[in-house]
Amino acid sequence: MIIINKPNEMSEKIKSLKLQGKSIGFVPTMGYLHNGHMSLIEKARGENDIVAVSIFVNPTQFGAGEDLDSYPRNIERDEALCKEKGADIIFAPQSVDMYPKGYSTYVDVEGSITRGLCGASRPGHFRGVATVLAKLFNIVQPQRAYFGQKDAQQVAVVRRMAEDLNMDVEIVSCPIVREEDGLAMSSRNTYLSPGERMDALVLSRSLFEAKEMIMSGKRDASNIKSHIKSGISGVKSADIDYVEIVDADSMEDLEVIRGRVLVALAVRVGKTRLIDNIILEVE
Amino acid sequence: MIIINKPNEMSEKIKSLKLQGKSIGFVPTMGYLHNGHMSLIEKARGENDIVAVSIFVNPTQFGAGEDLDSYPRNIERDEALCKEKGADIIFAPQSVDMYPKGYSTYVDVEGSITRGLCGASRPGHFRGVATVLAKLFNIVQPQRAYFGQKDAQQVAVVRRMAEDLNMDVEIVSCPIVREEDGLAMSSRNTYLSPGERMDALVLSRSLFEAKEMIMSGKRDASNIKSHIKSGISGVKSADIDYVEIVDADSMEDLEVIRGRVLVALAVRVGKTRLIDNIILEVE
C-alpha cells in the first residue's frame, strides 16, 4: 500500500494505472475509520483491480461553528486499517493543496435533493460535498465510488451530480453498519459520553419502530414522524434537528408512504449531532 | 468525419478512442462557424490524434431576453466546414439530452474572474458556461481544449475551473481572428445591417488606439478608458455596455497598466451586443 499526499502525484499515479488497464474503486472518507468504512473498502476490494481510499477532512463542507477543528483524526490508525483491508493507495491531501490561494470554483446541486434534511440544517454543506467529490473524482478517475447509506442524502447528491455532469463513475451505496446495540457507526460517536452513548440508541430504536409501523401497514407519514418525535423527546439529552420521511431519490417530502422511502433523522445528543436513517421499499 | 448527437454515444466513442491511446483535441462551439472557429480546429488538428468539435447552443448561458432563440444556426454548413478542416467527430447534442428533466447541477466560478465585464452585464452567463464545459469535458475527455481569445473572460473562467476542479485538460487560448477591416469575427456579426456593420468598426479601432497609447508609454487606465469611451460615443448606433482594463488572469480592475493586461469592451450596435479585446504584456 502506498500513501500519496499531493493531488498531482495522485493524478500521475492513477494515469499510469489506467494506462495498464486497471479498474479503480474509490472510497472517499474523512478518516477516523470505523467498520462502516471497512465495509466500503471490502466491497471495493471485491469489484476492482485497485482500491484507493481518500482521507481528507474537507473544510468546505463544514459550516461556521461546526466541528471542523475538533473532528477526530488518527492517520496512523487509518493507514493500518486500510492496509489490513487490502487497500492499494491512500490519498491524504492537505487542505492547502486541495484549496490553494485563489481557489474559486464550487459545484451546486439545487432543488429538492439539497433543500431539506441536512441541506436545511447545514447551509453550504452539500455544496462543499459536491465540490470536493468533483475534485476527487477528477483526481482518482474511479470506475466505481463507494458511499455509506448512513449519509443517504449525500448519496442522492453525488448520484445526481455524477449523472448531471456526465461523470463516468458508478455510485455504489452500501448498507449502514451498526454497533451490536443498533447505534449507526460514525466517527462522531467518539464525542459521546457514556451516558450520551446510551441515550443515542433512541435514534436507531425510533427508526426500527417506524419500520415496524410501516411494515404493519401504516402509510401516514406525519403520524409516523409524530411517533418518532415523541420517542426522542422522552430522552433528556436528545434534541431533535429533523425527522423526515421523503422519496429516497428526489428527497421530496412524502405525505403518504409509497415507493422507495427514506426515513431520516438528525438529533443532537448533548453537543454531538448524529444522523441515522432507513430506506424501505413500500408498495 | 462522424456526427454524434447522444451524450452517451459520444462517451462510448471517446472511451474506445482512448483505449487505442489516441489524444483528443476538443473545440467547443455554439456553431455557425466562422474563421475564428476554423483557426481553433486547425490548431487542434496539428496537436492531437483526434479532433472533436461540439456544436451546441447552450441555453444555460443565455439570460432572459437574450438571443437564445434567434442565435444563428446552420448545421449543414458547419458540418461541411468541419470536414474541410479535417475534424474527426462533430458532437451536436440536443438540449433535452444535455439538460434532461430533473437536471439540478451547476458549476460556479466565483470572485473577481466572473464579477466584472460580461459577468456583470450577463448574470448567470458564466455559470452556464462553466456548467456546460464541465459536462462537455467529462463527455469528450480531451487532452487539450481550444478557445478563442475573443472570449477572454471565458478563457479565464474555464482555466480557473479546470485548475480548481483538478480536470486533466490543457486550456489553449488562440488569437482573435478579424475581418480585413478589423472587426472581430463573431457569429453575431450576421445580425448587423450594412450601416451597423460599418459602425461596428469602432470597437476594434478603439482598441487599436488604446494599444498605441499604451505602447507610447501611457499607463493611466482611466485616461485610456475615457479615450475609448469618447470614441465610441461619437458613433450614433453604438451604446457602451462596458469598457474595462483588467489583469488578464484574475480579471481584477487595474488603475495603473502593468503586467498581462486585458483591454476589453462590450458595445451594443443597434440591437446587437458585440465584444472585443486586446491583451498586452506591459513592463
The CATH superfamily of the largest domain in chain A bears the name: HUPs
Overall CATH class of the largest domain in chain A? Alpha Beta
The SSE string of chain A, one letter per element, is: EHEHEHEHEHHHEHEHHHEEE
Q: Can you give the helix content of chain A as a percent range? A: 25-40%
What is the straight-line distance between the termini of chain A? 46 Å
Biggest β-sheet description of chain A = 6 strands, parallel
- Strands of chain A, count: 10
Structural class from helices and strands of chain A?
Answer: alpha/beta
What percentage of the residues of chain A does DSSP assign to strands (E)? Answer: 15-25%
Supply Rg of chain A: 19 Å
Q: What CATH architecture of the largest domain in chain A would you give?
A: 3-Layer(aba) Sandwich
Estimate nothing, just give the exact number of structural domains of chain A.
2
Average pLDDT over all residues of chain A: 97
Question: Which stretches of chain A of 5+ consecutive residues score pLDDT under 50?
Answer: none
Spatial strand arrangement across the major sheet of chain A: 1-4-3-2-6-7
Catalytic activity (chains A, B): (R)-pantoate + beta-alanine + ATP = (R)-pantothenate + AMP + diphosphate + H(+)
EC number (chains A, B): 6.3.2.1
GO cellular component, one term (chains A, B): cytosol
Subunit structure (chains A, B): Homodimer.
Task: Describe what this molecule looks like in 3D.
The structure is a homodimer of 283-residue chains. By secondary structure, chain A is an alpha/beta fold. Chain A has two domains: 2-174, 3-Layer(aba) Sandwich (Rossmann fold), CATH 3.40.50.620; 187-276, Pantoate-beta-alanine ligase, C-terminal domain (Pantoate--beta-alanine Ligase, Chain: A,domain 2), CATH 3.30.1300. Chain A contains eleven helices and ten strands. Chain A has a six-stranded parallel beta sheet, sandwiched between helices. In chain A, strands 8-9-10 form a three-stranded antiparallel beta sheet. The A-B interface holds A 7, 11, 15, 102-111, 113, 130-131, 134-135, 138-139, 160-161, 164-168, 250 and B 7, 11, 15, 102-111, 113, 130-131, 134-135, 138-139, 160-161, 164-168, 250. Strand 5 (105-109) of chain A pairs antiparallel with strand 5 of chain B, so a sheet runs across the interface.
